[in-house]
Design goal:
With about 140 residues, the protein is α/β, with parallel strands linked by helices. The chain has five helices and six strands; from the N terminus they run E-H-E-H-E-H-E-E-H-E-H. It has a single domain, classed as SPOUT methyltransferase, trefoil knot domain (Alpha/beta knot), CATH 3.40.1280. It has a six-stranded parallel sheet with strand order 3-2-1-5-4-6, sandwiched between helices. Helix 1 packs parallel to helix 2. The protein is globular. InterPro entries: DUF2122_RecB-nuclease-rel.
Length: about 140
């Protein structure tokens, strides 16, 4: 199972997302298109966190690049804008789950299937927890 954190500008939020995924046993943390403080200070901190847990970190410029390297079976774009809920059967090894720091743009929406994790409105960090808990 691949967790991808895409288009984050907040250092704190990126660090919390990575810390949460690592706490649930993620061996690979993927960050694509980090900007602002997430790129400047968040990436080095996340790198240290991943290293301490014995994991791996992949940082890419674009979501397309990350997915090209990962070659997931299916891609699910996790966003409250989705009409369909991510169901338990869709949570499996080999799939990529993309969490957004900002809402996805049309070009990104074409890269996978949009799903929300209920209840709608919880933070991205809570969504990561719910994804792993429902695994």
């Amino acid at each position: 199972m691949f967790v991808v954190f895409h288009n984050f500008a907040s250092q704190i939020k990126l660090e919390e997302m990575a810390r949460t995924a690592l706490a649930y046993g993620a061996k690979l943390v993927v960050v694509s298109k980090a900007t602002g403080m997430a790129a400047q200070a968040g990436i080095p901190t996340v790198s240290r966190l991943v290293f301490e847990k014995g994991g791996r970190l992949l940082v890419t410029h674009t979501l397309e690049e990350a997915l090209e390297l990962l070659k997931p079976k299916k891609v699910y774009l996790i966003t409250d804008l989705a009409q369909e809920e991510l169901n338990k059967e869709e949570i499996e090894e080999g799939n990529a789950y993309v969490f957004f720091g900002n809402y996805p743009i049309r070009k990104e929406e074409a890269l996978g299937e949009k799903r929300y994790i209920s209840p709608k409105g919880v933070s991205e960090v809570a969504q990561v927890c719910l994804l792993f808990e429902r695994k």
